[in-house]
From TrEMBL:
Reactions accelerated catalytically: oxaloacetate + acetyl-CoA + H2O = citrate + CoA + H(+)
Entry's Gene Ontology cellular component terms: cytoplasm
Active site: H273, D331
This protein's name: Citrate synthase
A single GO BP: tricarboxylic acid cycle
Claim: Acyltransferase is one of the keywords in the record: yes
Amino acid sequence: QTGKFTYDPGFLSTASCNSTITYIDGDKGELLYRGYPIEQLATQCDFLETCYLLLKGELPNAEQRTDFTKLVTNHTMVNEQMQFFLRGFRRDAHPMAVMTGLVGALSAFYHDSTDITNPQHREISAIRLIAKMPTLVAMAYKYGIGQPFIYPKNSLSYSANFMRMMFATPCEEYEPDDVLVRAIDRIFILHADHEQNASTSTVRLCGSSGTNPFAAIAAGVACLWGPAHGGANEAALNMLKDIQRQGGVEKIGEFIKQVKDKNSNVKLMGFGHRVYKNYDPRAKLMRETCHEVLQATGLHDDPLFKLAMALEKIALEDDYFVSRKLYPNVDFYSGIVQSALGIPVSLFTAIFALARTVGWIAQLNEMIGDPEYKIGRPRQLFVGSVARNVKPIGER
Ligand code: SDX
């Protein structure tokens, strides 16, 4: 029992680890980072304050916030050689293929922060990863559209810097709009950590072998790519576009019928969750952000947003979803928000990885920092063949 939280023994028997970082109550739809409700962090803090909280366990005071921001800002550039690694990809390579390669490649440049057992190495690799992910994601985007890379401009905030690296060109400056910068910053906060999800567990298991922090985070990027996990925001938006193409709101009934047909294997992307059996608190905040961004960009009549709200309303009243406790998750609205920000669908999961990097690092450091930790070694329940002898090939 810790504070107000009490766990049933059954839960503890399945828990993969103890952690003090993120608490989720799936039945109540509650999410806390280091005890702070996500609703308060998303509306009263910025992403770098949230990074500081996840890494160090406390929110920074004004001086700590300034120092941490300066530290991260001083590491936003990447080694010039990284662009040649990137140029080895086809222009149409999926950004997550590029990010999986680039993040792992970082370990080739920073020998002073690759020893995961060294607390100083962990500290500096954390700063480098948090600082460089926006630069790498923006480079992957620019490379895909054939535009030159835009260097970070350190007079800007973390999220404004990212938006500028994405949308400025050598011919035209990009003045990030405050509402849009706040929206992307909130997307980063909402995706920063989420307990022992598939990609975080991947990072923990990978890091437990003593590999370097960059390689462990690259493993998390690879796992997050899957459509059942971080790839769901891309899949959710493509699903809305498909319904739109087939006739929009009028066609929702037909689509829902397909979802209910077990043989169709069609899922309502952006709905359902392994833990939340109530509304994902991040989805509520994402829907609000969606509204604000669409107002700010003059897209309030965006048919996809109207379609998403109509689909959500129907699903929340339909017994198939209600009986299975299927509610919208963080990915249902995030795609619409990112589209309205001018971000292409193919980049959504790379942005999820950018945000989740701090959570992966915090979880990895929590494990490695525990003197009792050992290399992960999940076991199995063997249900295969009993011992038998090889027969000569003529008798097989
Ligand atoms: C993320 O773990 C995390 O914390 C992840 C994440 C994070 O921040 O790291 O929150 C990010 O990954 C969010 C989830 C994004 N994925 C999607 O939106 C993809 C669509 N969702 C489904 O693939 C699914 O809901 C999962 C994978 C998320 C959960 O699958 P489960 O564990 O099978 O869900 P369940 O046990 O609650 O399913 C109960 C029933 C099953 O049907 P029956 O066998 O009872 O007939 O509901 C069905 C499922 O088939 N079901 C769905 C559905 N999700 C579950 N049916 C239609 N549409 C869906 N989306």
